[in-house]
Specification:
Strand content: 25-35%
Order of helices and strands: HHHHHHEHEEEEEEHEEEEH
Largest sheet: 4 strands, mixed
Number of strands: 11
Structural class: alpha+beta
Helix content: 25-40%
Number of helices: 9
Strand order of the largest sheet: 6-7-11-10
Shape: elongated
């Protein structure tokens, strides 16, 4: 509205009347769009050139702007384009590289004590890496340990991805894991189950402990050895070891054994 005549018309007819008498092209004829865009914080001629190919002043405006009904750009379209051009001038931030997943099998003996373990893995580009991983005592199946910055490199200068180590518990020949508890199946003779007594039981620590079997113990009964399981990760507590007793039935009997059992059978046993 730098034109004094247009200003007078605006003051006389008001906003609606003024726009009825003058098109948007008339309003901005003679204006320097470089200055307009600079007023709105969109930079200088470089920004204008990116949108309009270097057009400037009235000539450039008439070439690219034909009013709201003329099939060209409206005034709002101009500033949308300028804002988009300004956003396009900023580069995307560097992206983090892809993460890697490594499955680590551990024995129950390694889990009960914890400690450090060195692993070797290969990246997609063929390079190999060796890292030392701290294994928390009592870690459970499926848990993941994170090693920052040991994954794949970034493609555009960002930080490298991370290495995730997924824990896999290897099967054990003697013990079965159930949470922080251990289960051991132990055969006992019928006489011990009937009369009761004590047996020696191995533990994961390598020590042998005595287990009392109550008289009249039924097959598949579980007897507990308190505190002989796995440590609870992060809490300091210990699980238990359960001994599942199975009554052993001999396939072959000696003559004397057979007579004794027959005698027991006659007495209702």
């Amino acid at each position: 509205m730098s034109d004094s005549k247009k200003r007078q018309q605006y003051d006389t007819f008001g906003d609606s009347g003024f726009h009825q008498r003058f098109t948007q092209e008339d309003i901005f004829r003679g204006s320097d769009l470089h200055e307009i865009f600079k007023e709105f914080g969109f930079g200088s001629g470089e920004m204008f050139s990116r949108i309009f190919g270097g057009a400037r002043g009235t000539g450039g405006f008439k070439t690219y702007y034909t009013g709201s009904g003329g099939g060209g750009f409206g005034f709002e379209d101009l500033f949308k384009g300028a804002a988009g051009a300004q956003r396009g001038s900023h580069q995307e931030p560097p992206a983090k590289g892809p993460d890697l997943l490594y499955e680590l099998p551990l024995t129950l003996e390694e889990i009960v004590d914890g400690g450090s373990k060195v692993i070797s893995y290969r990246r997609r580009d063929g390079s190999s890496e060796r890292v030392s991983v701290k294994i928390p005592a009592g870690i459970e199946e499926g848990k993941k340990l994170r090693v920052p910055g040991k994954g794949e490199p970034s493609s555009n200068g960002g930080p490298a991805g991370d290495l995730y180590i997924k824990i896999k518990v290897a099967p054990h020949m003697v013990f079965e894991r159930s949470g922080q508890d251990l289960i051991l199946r132990q055969e006992i003779p019928f006489s011990l189950a009937a009369l009761g007594g004590s047996i020696s039981i191995p533990t994961l620590s390598g020590k042998t402990v005595k287990l009392r079997v109550p008289a009249g113990t039924m097959s598949h009964t579980r007897l507990r050895l308190k505190g002989h399981g796995l440590p609870a990760m992060g809490s300091g507590g210990m699980g238990d070891q359960y001994v599942q007793v199975l009554i052993s039935v001999p396939k072959k009997l000696k003559r004397e054994q057979k007579k004794l059992i027959q005698s027991l059978a006659e007495q209702g046993l």
